[in-house]
Design a protein that fits this description.
Shape: elongated
Radius of gyration: 34 Å
Number of helices: 43
Oligomer: single chain
Number of strands: 6
Helix content: 55-70%
Strand content: under 5%
Structural class: mainly alpha
Strand order of the largest sheet: 2-1-3-4-5-6
Amino acid sequence: MDFRSIAHRYSTLLTPNSQTLARAVHAHILTSGFRPSPYILNRLIAVYCKSSNIRYARRVFDKIPQPDIVARTTLLAAYSSAGDVKLAKQVFRATPMSMRDTVSYNAMITAYSHGRDGHAAVWLFVEMKRKGFFPDSFSFSSVLGALSMIADEEKHCKQLHCEVVKCGVGNVTSVLNSLISCYVNCASSPLVSSSLVMGSARKLFDEMHERDELSWTTMIAGYVRSDDLGAARKLLDGMTEKIACAWNAMISGYVQHGFYNAAFELFRKMHLMGIQLDEYTYTSMISAASNAGFYKCGRQVHAYILRTEAQPSEHFILSVHNSLITFYTKCGKVVQAREIFNKMPVKDLVSWNAILSGFVNARCIEEANSIFKEMPERNLLTWTVMVSGLAQNGFGEEALKLFNQMRLEGLEPCDYSYAGAIMSCAVLGSLDNGKQIHSQVVRLGHDSSLSASNALITMYARCGLVESAYTVFLTMPYVDSISWNAMIAALAQHGRGVEAIQLYEQMLKEDILPDRITFLTILSACSHAGLVKEGRHYFDSMSACYDITPGEDHYARLIDLLCRAGLFSEAKNVTDSMPFESGAPIWEALLTGCRIHGNFELGIQAAERLFELMPQHDGTYIILSNMYATLGQWDEVARVRKLMRDRGVKKEPGCSWIEVENMVHVFLVDDAVHPEVQAVYKYLEQLVHEMRKLGYVPDTKFVLHDMESEHKEHALSAHSEKLAVVYGIMKLPLGATIRIFKNLRICGDCHNAFKFISKVVGREIVVRDRKRFHHFKNGQCSCGNYW
DNA sequence: GTAGGGTTAG
């Protein structure tokens, strides 16, 4: 067979799906010196482009001495869909003016549009007209897509609408679809009245002579985007054709707005009506199940897919499995999620990010870390998930390090990333860092972001500056229930229970619905302030007014509230009426109350139960041993100590820290490590002398009970919180508030001592311990000794 | 040779 006939056969066989043949032809060209016609070369480029083999396409292209406009446009379009605007532009620029035509302009406009550069696209559209090219329906579809990105006023859409009509494509369905989509996008701009613009879109839709799948889908998705689910549903119900995309848009709208039951109802209807369910339907439904916590429903969807999809496409497998990973992790089934992830034949970035955040949410930080290291590629989301995951799990330092590293790698953090960094500062109590990040947030315009601002509220509160937290809260352009919860929690942690309750009441007045977290917060606010009646009232309102079933955590806080107030019989009534067995949180609350009120009988009972439920928890042993010590039952003290030793339980060492000039200084009990600790001891000695003059008597009871301190007199002055406070007095500017942090609860003697210190040195001391804040000022503590 | 919608990761 000669070359000519081979060429002929190739040209008929080179369909877009014949990649193998394309390689054969290519090889033939390279090895035999065969010079195919431009037509064959163009086909070859097209086949390579179709199969995303752009590098081969480029090699063929570069071999052509004078590529024609078809070859150039094919390559340009391939770069465009691969998202490589730079190379697309290169090809376009290299095309001589005399060769260019409308199609090549259209392709380049689309390339800009894919590269999210709406201005460049519109500019090229204008240039193309100036150069005398007449825009066709493709030009309008492309430029309208670009315009959607930059138009924030209806008049922009209207302008192009006029041109569409002038150019005679005002009746072309595809152009009208793009135009509708343009109006729809514009409707989400804050500068326009959404209902007015949606009205214009709808008018176009109603006046169309012919509506295709896209018209219906665009219009329905448009209503969904402008939060008008009712209009979307009405349109869907009036649709006679069976258009899966339109149904998918509606379902996804329900899911995004949290109407999970409506989504499932529509899903069933879709199935009953015989509309083809596809990966888009399934992913939405699975995500509905994960968000709503409908484990059974999700399993059913999963099982249904396995039963019905015999030949799923690669795209189907990928997207469905990606959403399944999230589903299983959100339902607490990390093992299943991992299994699905491991078995996936092809993984993309979404899969990796899904499993990563699954581990992060399940608090499996080690696994998350190894996934993060293993990932073949990372994006902004990856880093953000990891930063906030580390922060949420208490690894503030690691989180901040990672945040800085992501910036070094040239990634521009988004508001969520900043929220993670701010939370790290909250965990560390690093006000200097927090303030710095706050100013960056403002500079970058992220201060209107909910996630960043909510994190700022928490950060300021946890660094001891409730007023700054309040300022953030009050200056937010809009707030959500998380903002309210954060602010109420801020007041609660600082013992300002009455204000916390007032804020909660205001939240109700503003028609914000409280959630489970709100009640946890408000109950502990009542607990810290001794507001028993109010606490009971709010607890009862949960199921009565808000249809929220109190969980074990809510019961535990109620019991904490009652026991702190010494109401043990009431607490018992509550535990008896609980719909479940008392777990560890309940017994812990009881034990805390018993410790405060010296109710040893019940306390010992609670402690013994806790030994069974969480044998590795150091706190129980310490409280129990202290109780026995107070009773003088030294045999029992010894027994508890032995039990602790035998079980290998280690007491978490007390440690306190303070920030001075952007540096965190850490002190341990009996610290000998900090370079300036000798000076600190010396200063403390002088201070105690002054304090004694005012009536301070060291309370040796606390030493007696401290299982780690063998040397009484010294141990008292060597508690880490004292060292940190003294260091602050020595190093911070005169009059500045001393803010220190402790990993455990503050010791009773230190609490007493700080009252005296605040008076002697005339400074405010703020202590954040494991549970709450203490503000010492002028010999008083804000907790009113109720802690 | 060129366009436009519905999904999954916080």
